Amino acid sequence: MRFEPDEMCRKTREAEEARWLPRVIQPALAVLLVVFSLAAEGQVGPTERLSGPALVGSVTIVQVTATDAILVFAGQCKGNAAGFSTTLSPFNVATTTAASLEGLRLPGQGPAGCLSQAGGEDLIVTTVVTPKFVNTGTVLTAEAVLLFVVPR
Question: Cα separation of 53 and 76, whole Å?
Answer without folding.
Answer: 10
